[in-house]
Amino acid sequence: MTATRPSPELQPLGPAPAGRYGLGGVLGSEWTKLVTVRSTVWALVATAVAGVGIGALVTSAQAARFATRSRLAQLAFDPTRSSLAGMLLAQLAIGVLAVLLVSAEYGTGTVRSTFAAVPRRLYVLVAKAALFAAVAFVIGEVVSFVAFLIGQHILAGRAPTASLSDPTVMRAVVSGGLYLTALGLFALGLASVIRHTAGSISAFVGSLFVLPIIADVLPSSFAADVDRYLPADIGTVMLSANYHGTDPFGPWVSFAILCGYAAAALVVGGVLLVRRDA
Predict the structure, then answer these.
(1) 13 found inside a domain
(2) Residue 135: CA atoms inside 13 Å, Cβ hemisphere, count?
(3) What average pLDDT does the segment 243-270 reach?
(4) In sequence order, which residues have a C-beta less than 8 Å from that of residue 106 and are 6 or more positions away?
(5) What pLDDT score does 141 carry?
(6) Is 2 contained in some domain?
(7) How many CB atoms are located within 10 Å of the residue 24 CB?
């Protein structure tokens, strides 16, 4: 008497064989995706052009008008913040890149193949976040330092300049890369929650430019308490060298708050990533 073999469809599904993949393999896969799409190149180019180019334009305008300003305005002038003005526009480009890293796969349907190859979905989100953070930090720091050096060259002889030997100046310039990285991770977290490119970009842009408008129409006593928690105001504090303790939060506390936003968005995105269908 021969034993009958159960049909394949009735056999229980066990766990995936050990050793099939690990976080290192997922990182390699996500790196390939990152460097082989044109949107990555264009987004990074836009980040560099906005950070350096807009900063140079703003600094040129500041230098041209400096002699005609009031004495009080001249004393309050922050050459470091002027040079880094373009970083507040570069944040849009880096945010779009972060969104596309997640939403593009949902839009094309290739996310199903990704999750089929990597059933542990959190590995995918961790790999995307880690790679993006590394790329955004390197690009952000390069753009921030280049923008600062060009800006100081433009100001030389026409307005006060700043030096990297000043600890507050160095902190502000380094904060340029940190700000773009944390804000980009926030955008990546939003994309992992929303999963649609247009919706994710709209939510990201809204958090930067719409929320301040809403805050402005609130009663003045309440608006000040809201403004200090907004990403745009956090960026202003981080990129300013002339900090004397008058801002609601210091630069590092502001950065910690921004990191909290990014962490919260990524945690919510990770929970939904595991619970929802692809």
Answers:
(1) no
(2) 25
(3) 86
(4) 195, 196, 278
(5) 97
(6) no
(7) 9
List the helix and strand counts (H, then E) for the chain.
14, 0
pLDDT value for 278: 60
Average pLDDT score over the chain: 87
The number of domains in the chain is 1
Contact status, residue 16 vs residue 119, Cβ threshold 8 Å: yes
pLDDT one-digit tens code per residue, 202-222: 999 999 999 888 888 887 777
pLDDT-based confidence at residue 16 (cuts at 50, 70, 90): very low
CA distance 97 to 94: 5
Note the pLDDT of residue 244: 53
Name the DSSP letter for residue 245. S
Q: Please answer whether residues 58 and 155 qualify as being in contact, where contact means their C-beta atoms are separated by less than 8 angstroms.
A: no
Which residue in this structure is represented by tokens 């994710």? 200
Task: Determine, yes or no, domain membership for 16.
Answer: no
Give long-range contacts, CB 8 A cutoff, 24+ apart: 15-24.
16/119, 21/117, 21/118, 21/123, 23/123, 23/126, 23/127
- Structural domain of residue 245, as residue ranges? 22-275
**Would 10 be classed as within a structural domain?**
no
CA neighbor of 186 nearest in space, from 211, 214, 169 = 211
Cα distances (Å, whole numbers) of residue 83 to 34, 61, 107, 181:
30, 11, 38, 19
Question: Can you read off the two tokens belonging to residue 249?
Answer: 């939060």
155 and 78 Cβ atoms separated by less than 8 Å: no
DSSP tag of 159: S
